[in-house]
Protein backbone atom coordinates (compact mmCIF):
# COMPACT_ATOMS: atom_id res chain seq x y z
CA UNK A 1 0.00 0.00 0.00
CA UNK A 2 2.81 2.40 0.91
CA UNK A 3 4.52 2.17 -2.47
CA UNK A 4 1.25 2.49 -4.35
CA UNK A 5 0.24 5.65 -2.46
CA UNK A 6 3.62 7.24 -3.13
CA UNK A 7 3.47 6.25 -6.80
CA UNK A 8 -0.05 7.63 -7.08
CA UNK A 9 0.99 11.01 -5.75
CA UNK A 10 4.12 11.10 -7.87
CA UNK A 11 1.89 10.66 -10.91
CA UNK A 12 -0.49 13.32 -9.66
CA UNK A 13 2.38 15.76 -9.20
CA UNK A 14 3.25 15.43 -12.86
CA UNK A 15 -0.29 16.27 -13.88
CA UNK A 16 -0.62 19.43 -11.80
CA UNK A 17 0.44 22.68 -13.46
CA UNK A 18 3.79 23.98 -12.26
CA UNK A 19 3.98 26.85 -9.79
CA UNK A 20 6.29 29.64 -10.84
CA UNK A 21 8.00 32.11 -8.58
CA UNK A 22 6.33 35.47 -8.31
CA UNK A 23 6.58 38.66 -6.32
CA UNK A 24 6.30 36.64 -3.09
CA UNK A 25 9.81 35.29 -3.64
CA UNK A 26 11.14 38.84 -3.62
CA UNK A 27 9.80 39.09 -0.06
CA UNK A 28 11.44 35.81 1.04
CA UNK A 29 8.37 33.60 0.57
CA UNK A 30 8.97 30.48 -1.50
CA UNK A 31 5.89 28.30 -1.80
CA UNK A 32 6.06 24.54 -2.13
CA UNK A 33 6.28 23.31 -5.69
CA UNK A 34 3.98 20.53 -6.86
CA UNK A 35 6.47 17.78 -6.02
CA UNK A 36 7.03 19.05 -2.48
CA UNK A 37 3.30 19.35 -1.81
CA UNK A 38 2.67 15.89 -3.24
CA UNK A 39 5.50 14.36 -1.19
CA UNK A 40 4.18 15.85 2.06
CA UNK A 41 0.62 14.75 1.25
CA UNK A 42 1.77 11.20 0.47
CA UNK A 43 3.79 11.09 3.69
CA UNK A 44 0.88 12.32 5.81
CA UNK A 45 -1.66 10.08 4.07
CA UNK A 46 0.53 7.04 4.65
CA UNK A 47 1.11 7.99 8.29
CA UNK A 48 -2.61 8.48 8.90
CA UNK A 49 -3.52 5.20 7.20
CA UNK A 50 -0.90 3.43 9.33
CA UNK A 51 -2.40 4.93 12.49
CA UNK A 52 -5.97 3.95 11.64
CA UNK A 53 -4.94 0.55 10.25
CA UNK A 54 -4.22 -0.76 13.74
CA UNK A 55 -7.88 -0.72 14.72
CA UNK A 56 -9.64 -4.08 14.91
CA UNK A 57 -13.10 -2.52 15.13
CA UNK A 58 -15.88 -4.04 13.06
CA UNK A 59 -18.56 -1.85 11.56
CA UNK A 60 -22.01 -2.82 10.35
CA UNK A 61 -23.09 -1.55 6.96
CA UNK A 62 -26.59 -1.03 5.64
CA UNK A 63 -29.91 -0.89 7.38
CA UNK A 64 -33.03 -2.94 7.70
CA UNK A 65 -36.52 -1.87 8.71
CA UNK A 66 -37.38 -5.04 10.57
CA UNK A 67 -33.81 -6.14 11.45
CA UNK A 68 -34.55 -9.65 10.16
CA UNK A 69 -31.67 -9.70 7.71
CA UNK A 70 -28.26 -9.35 9.33
CA UNK A 71 -26.28 -6.28 8.38
CA UNK A 72 -23.06 -6.70 6.46
CA UNK A 73 -20.04 -6.50 8.76
CA UNK A 74 -16.58 -5.34 7.73
CA UNK A 75 -13.35 -4.48 9.48
CA UNK A 76 -12.89 -0.73 9.89
CA UNK A 77 -9.31 -0.93 8.62
CA UNK A 78 -10.59 -2.32 5.31
CA UNK A 79 -13.56 -0.01 4.99
CA UNK A 80 -14.17 2.85 2.62
CA UNK A 81 -15.20 4.87 5.68
CA UNK A 82 -11.63 4.72 6.99
CA UNK A 83 -10.26 6.07 3.72
CA UNK A 84 -12.85 8.86 3.53
CA UNK A 85 -12.20 9.93 7.12
CA UNK A 86 -8.47 9.90 6.46
CA UNK A 87 -8.80 12.00 3.31
CA UNK A 88 -11.10 14.42 5.09
CA UNK A 89 -8.56 15.30 7.80
CA UNK A 90 -5.14 14.63 6.28
CA UNK A 91 -4.51 18.19 5.07
CA UNK A 92 -4.98 19.57 8.59
CA UNK A 93 -1.82 17.70 9.56
CA UNK A 94 0.20 19.91 7.22
CA UNK A 95 -0.39 22.81 9.62
CA UNK A 96 1.92 20.96 12.05
CA UNK A 97 4.82 21.60 9.66
CA UNK A 98 7.20 24.54 9.78
CA UNK A 99 9.37 26.09 7.13
CA UNK A 100 13.09 25.48 7.66
CA UNK A 101 14.60 28.20 5.49
CA UNK A 102 18.11 27.05 6.31
CA UNK A 103 17.43 24.00 4.10
CA UNK A 104 17.14 24.18 0.32
CA UNK A 105 15.54 20.86 -0.70
CA UNK A 106 12.12 19.38 0.06
CA UNK A 107 13.17 18.85 3.68
CA UNK A 108 12.66 22.59 4.19
CA UNK A 109 9.11 21.55 5.08
CA UNK A 110 9.30 19.49 8.26
CA UNK A 111 7.62 19.06 11.60
CA UNK A 112 9.37 20.69 14.50
CA UNK A 113 10.85 24.11 15.01
CA UNK A 114 13.57 25.30 12.65
CA UNK A 115 17.09 25.96 13.93
CA UNK A 116 16.57 29.65 13.30
CA UNK A 117 13.47 29.85 15.46
CA UNK A 118 15.01 27.65 18.15
CA UNK A 119 17.86 30.15 18.36
CA UNK A 120 15.50 33.14 18.35
CA UNK A 121 13.31 31.62 21.09
CA UNK A 122 16.47 30.92 23.09
CA UNK A 123 17.51 34.57 22.79
CA UNK A 124 14.08 35.78 23.89
CA UNK A 125 14.17 33.37 26.84
CA UNK A 126 17.48 34.95 27.88
CA UNK A 127 15.91 38.42 27.78
CA UNK A 128 17.24 39.60 24.42
CA UNK A 129 14.82 41.81 22.48
CA UNK A 130 14.32 40.28 19.04
CA UNK A 131 12.38 42.21 16.38
CA UNK A 132 11.37 40.21 13.31
CA UNK A 133 8.72 42.65 12.15
CA UNK A 134 5.94 40.33 13.30
CA UNK A 135 4.44 39.97 16.78
CA UNK A 136 5.99 37.32 19.02
CA UNK A 137 2.60 35.56 19.29
CA UNK A 138 2.71 34.82 15.54
CA UNK A 139 6.17 33.24 15.53
CA UNK A 140 4.80 29.73 16.02
CA UNK A 141 1.74 30.08 13.77
CA UNK A 142 1.80 28.41 10.33
CA UNK A 143 3.65 30.50 7.76
CA UNK A 144 2.32 31.59 4.37
CA UNK A 145 4.22 28.71 2.77
CA UNK A 146 2.59 26.16 5.07
CA UNK A 147 -0.95 27.50 4.67
CA UNK A 148 -0.44 27.55 0.90
CA UNK A 149 0.76 23.94 1.01
CA UNK A 150 -2.40 23.00 2.94
CA UNK A 151 -4.42 24.57 0.11
CA UNK A 152 -2.37 22.59 -2.43
CA UNK A 153 -3.09 19.43 -0.44
CA UNK A 154 -6.82 20.09 -0.51
CA UNK A 155 -6.68 20.71 -4.26
CA UNK A 156 -4.78 17.46 -4.84
CA UNK A 157 -7.30 15.46 -2.87
CA UNK A 158 -10.24 17.15 -4.56
CA UNK A 159 -8.85 16.47 -8.04
CA UNK A 160 -7.68 12.90 -7.42
CA UNK A 161 -10.08 11.52 -4.80
CA UNK A 162 -11.55 8.99 -7.24
CA UNK A 163 -8.10 7.76 -8.25
CA UNK A 164 -7.00 7.49 -4.62
CA UNK A 165 -10.13 5.49 -3.76
CA UNK A 166 -9.55 3.12 -6.69
CA UNK A 167 -5.91 2.56 -5.75
CA UNK A 168 -6.85 1.86 -2.13
CA UNK A 169 -9.66 -0.49 -3.20
CA UNK A 170 -7.20 -2.35 -5.43
CA UNK A 171 -4.77 -2.60 -2.50
CA UNK A 172 -7.50 -4.01 -0.24
CA UNK A 173 -8.44 -6.60 -2.87
CA UNK A 174 -4.80 -7.63 -3.28
CA UNK A 175 -4.40 -7.87 0.49
CA UNK A 176 -7.54 -10.03 0.72
CA UNK A 177 -6.26 -12.34 -2.05
CA UNK A 178 -2.98 -12.81 -0.20
CA UNK A 179 -4.79 -13.49 3.06
CA UNK A 180 -7.11 -16.03 1.39
CA UNK A 181 -4.11 -17.76 -0.20
CA UNK A 182 -2.40 -18.06 3.21
CA UNK A 183 -5.56 -19.52 4.74
CA UNK A 184 -5.75 -22.18 2.00
CA UNK A 185 -2.25 -23.39 2.85
UniProtKB/TrEMBL annotation:
Signal peptide positions (record): 1-21
Keywords for this protein: Signal
Question: Among its keywords, does the record have Flavoprotein?
Answer: no
Limits of the DUF3456 domain = 34-174
Family per record: Belongs to the canopy family.
Name of the protein this chain belongs to: DUF3456 domain-containing protein
Q: Which organism encodes this protein?
A: Anopheles coluzzii
Amino acid sequence: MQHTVLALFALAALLIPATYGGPEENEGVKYADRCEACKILATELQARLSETGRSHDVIELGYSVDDVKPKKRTEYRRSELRLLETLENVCERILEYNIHKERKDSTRFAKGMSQTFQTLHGLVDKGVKVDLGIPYELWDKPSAEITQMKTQCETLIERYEDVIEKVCLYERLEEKKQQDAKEEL
